[in-house]
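Figure 6 in text form: structure in, sequence out.
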């Protein structure tokens, strides 16, 4: 089995959650990026996208949380 390549993953926050309207970018594999997100924000986030998926959606009005 081929090793999964690292890439940028985008995580968003839902309405009513802290940081709603923002996103976080984390580089890693699907699983390692998720682990980092859980360490930073617990389960207080909404969705995980590839960077390509996220920026292909029309009408972005979110800002990056660093």
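Output sequence:
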């Amino acid at each position: 089995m081929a090793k999964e390549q690292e890439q940028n993953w985008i995580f968003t926050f839902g309405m009513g959650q802290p940081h709603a309207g923002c996103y976080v970018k984390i580089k890693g594999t699907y699983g390692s990026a998720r682990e980092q997100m859980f360490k930073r924000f617990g389960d207080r986030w909404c969705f995980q996208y590839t960077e390509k998926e996220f920026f292909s959606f029309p009408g972005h009005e979110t800002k990056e949380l660093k």
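Caption detail: The beta strands are 7-12, 22-28, 48-50, 63-64.
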